[in-house]
């Protein structure tokens, strides 16, 4: 998909300036025409000329500095080179920017109350549909309570509410809640994958996470349809700035051809990660209608990632699985994501089965757990076929990246 052409901004030509004095050299002013130019005037003119040249050089230098970060890629349809508009703006055209001016102190307090000793927090986001009783958020919290060494992690979980109904429900069921509500954008109802509201919600999340990094917090961001069965921190890479779960893992954590899923990632706050999130967010301007992980699948190859020195890792589905590629061993699995799933009812059905299987596994004595070869009962209602309800603009690039 090619981005729409942007209209160039042209200033309206100013009318010719009028002056009460005739210009030098004007034939209507014989007196001025005959006056020779004074040495002081020549010096002033040369000085002004040098200033103008110097300013031009400074402007060109600054422009060239930013141009070197503009991504180039081969269009999947035309093969021509394109540029990303690089504008560190915030939020969407039809909603106010994510601003910490009014809510900064409150957000800082929520994060401070939930933070671990190493300034890490766990973040998830919900809307009214996912916050309803017996919906996704209840299953999400239940997984922490029945998981192995995961209950204590609830103390470090911050729930971001995308509408007032979700915020009200969060205050009832959890102690660390933050309201991130946008005027003019309705996130209350179920946002089907790849619909306009879904895309706005995903990109709003990316911009918000950038602001959290700028505040100096590391985070694990997790979709609420990710079940936490074990503490994932022992499986994270110590030297990575950005590590992300996959829809499909190819065997190496460094292979850029792994297909990442933005529903679960661990990010350390530093200059590299902040610049990466700015780059990721602003890159969506060249792909109106693209999912955040579709865009990630393109920019992960870009030289800008090497330029800023970001260390990116892809997490093995053996530990961080999902319905796209389920974990095979319940003795190892940390998280399971209800990805590759279309529709809330289908998602809830398979999530409940997932929790039942885990409870059954945990009820076994240790000796049987090690020998356990429980057959996976999911996916059932969720499947790749269910995603044919939509047409992703990324389908001509690759088939991964489903929620």
Characteristic terms for this protein:
12 helices; 403 residues; three-stranded mixed beta sheet; disordered C terminus; alpha/beta; elongated; membrane; Spore Coat Polysaccharide Biosynthesis Protein SpsA, Chain A; disordered N terminus; single chain; seven-stranded mixed beta sheet
Describe the structure.
By secondary structure, this protein is an alpha/beta fold. It has one domain (103-389): Alpha-Beta Complex (Spore Coat Polysaccharide Biosynthesis Protein SpsA, Chain A). It has twelve helices and twelve strands. It has helices at residues 30-34, 39-67, 100-114, 128-131, 136-146, 164-173, 196-214, 271-283, 292-299, 303-308, 344-362, 366-371, and strands at residues 72-74, 81-83, 120-126, 157-161, 177-179, 218-222, 226-228, 242-248, 259-267, 312-314, 320-322, 335-337. The strands form three sheets. Strands 5-4-3-6-9-8-10 form a seven-stranded mixed β-sheet. Strands 7-12-11 form a three-stranded mixed β-sheet. It starts with 29 loop residues before the first helix and ends in a 32-residue tail after the last helix. Residues 153-351 form the Nucleotide-diphospho-sugar transferase domain.
The biggest beta sheet is recorded as: 7 strands, mixed
Distance between the termini: 21 Å
Using only CA atoms, what is the Rg?
A: 27 Å
Contiguous runs where pLDDT drops below 50 for at least 5 residues: 1-35, 58-102, 185-194, 388-402
Number of helical segments with 4 or more residues: 12
Which CATH architecture? Answer: Alpha-Beta Complex
Instruction: Report the order of strands and helices.
Output: HHEEHEHHEHEHEEEEHHHEEEHH
The CATH homology group name: Spore Coat Polysaccharide Biosynthesis Protein SpsA, Chain A
CATH class: Alpha Beta
Name the shape in a single word. elongated
Structural class estimated from helices and strands:
alpha/beta
Average pLDDT, rounded to a whole number, is 77
Name the helicity range.
25-40%
Can you count the beta strands?
Answer: 12
Q: State the domain count.
A: 1
Strand content: 5-15%
